[in-house]
Amino acid sequence: MPLFDPRGARPVRALLALPFAAAAAAGALAACAAPTAEPVPGPVEVRLMVKLTRPSDDRVGIAAEVGRVAGVPASYRSLVGADWHALSLRCADPSACDAAIERLRKARASFEAVELEGRKRGAVM
Question: Taking a C-beta distance cutoff of 8 angstroms, is the pair 74, 103 a contact?
């Protein structure tokens, strides 16, 4: 039998080592193919509603005030109620939107309330 033959021991050992060598090669290949850095987030658009302290129907003025206070570009979307207006903010990343929303919420002289309309999503350029 070749299993007990000293001359046949070397091929059997090579066959036993083959799965380990294949697993090591596959692991090395997978490590090379993996991305090294996280993807950079793109622009984010967040929709929100603001309740003004003084009623107004000046769309351009409202968007300008929201953009000025938030520190990011704002677009007017629609009138929701007598004092409520829907707008969208365009930010460089989600953390910039969070900071802009916080600035709007602190501006109590202009905005009685600031509510998120939906989830943050990637902006379409």
Answer: no
Backbone angles phi, psi at 50, to 5 degrees: -120, 145
For residues 110 and 65, membership in a common domain is answered with: yes
pTM to 2 decimals?
Answer: 0.62
Q: For residue 39, is it within any domain?
A: no
Per-residue pLDDT of the chain (125 residues; tens, 9 = 90+): 555 555 555 555 655 666 666 666 666 666 555 555 666 567 899 999 999 999 888 999 999 999 999 999 999 999 988 789 999 999 999 999 999 999 999 999 999 999 997 554 555 44
